[in-house]
Amino acid sequence: MSNITYLVTMNQGNQKVDRPQRIIMLKVYKREDLPSDFGLNYHTHLLCHRGRVDFKFNDLNQSCKGGEFLFWFARSNLADLQFSKRFNATVLLVENHFLNSNIPDQNWGIDAALHSRQYPVKALNDKKDRKRILTNFQLLNAKFQDKGHHFYEEALKLQMRLFIFEMWHTFVNEYERRKRSLQTGTLYERFRQLIEDNCMTEREVQFYANQLNITAKYLNAISKQNSGVTASEWIQRFTRERIVRMLQNEKLNIAEISDEMGFSSRSFFTRYVKKILGFTPTEYRNRLG
């Protein structure tokens, strides 16, 4: 990895602290062109022009080649990056907290996040899609660089939201096509779709087994056979994703999140979050800064 770090000094109270630069756009030809902290502090948007990159994502071997788009979340389970000799890509890195705090629609954000955590590589239909993505990169980077703008912070946040809308628009057909295929798929695929649709309020294996007209024991066996993960573990993973997304939305208070997820009390919600995140909701938000 590159030894280059992208930091800016900010005032916090009476102290000056270094924070990751919010937007970075760069050309990448080899592993060393990426900053050393890219996987920790940044969401990675990669438009591959030529060659390929192989990697392990959530312990599965995957690759992205010329004409495809790749998205990695900050702090993803990512390993074993290998770039081909002729690799050429444009990469846009967006600082973790800045992107998460500017998601314009939480429901769409959750759906897109769940999809991308399973399918980080996305095929592009034509040159128009590639041009749209590259233009989107350039517009966000240009707004970030325009520090003389009188309404700089407001304009940058609006551009960040527009960037997200444009990316969702580019891949909306893929999201919807995948959802339709799951609705008519195998029991395991239907189970995964049911979790996406219901895990905001339903966190028991028996609920999903009832929807599929099978026993909870059989559902666990199907899940374990197809993915190596039990049904209860999948439910917890999807629920965790939604809780994290909502806690990152500063417009929602903790009581509202607890109510929306159907918890009988805030204290019960706090204990549940502590169990799956290792922090209480308040502690988690404090860690976000």
From TrEMBL:
Keywords: DNA-binding, Transcription, Transcription regulation
Superkingdom of the organism of origin: Bacteria
SMART domains: HTH_ARAC
UniProt keyword annotation of Transcription present: yes
Gene3D superfamilies: Homeodomain-like
Residue ranges of every copy of the HTH araC/xylS-type domain listed in the record: 189-287
Pfam family, one: HTH_18
TM region positions: none
Entries under InterPro entries matching the protein: Homeodomain-like_sf, HTH_AraC, Tscrpt_reg_AraC-type_HTH
Name of protein: Helix-turn-helix transcriptional regulator
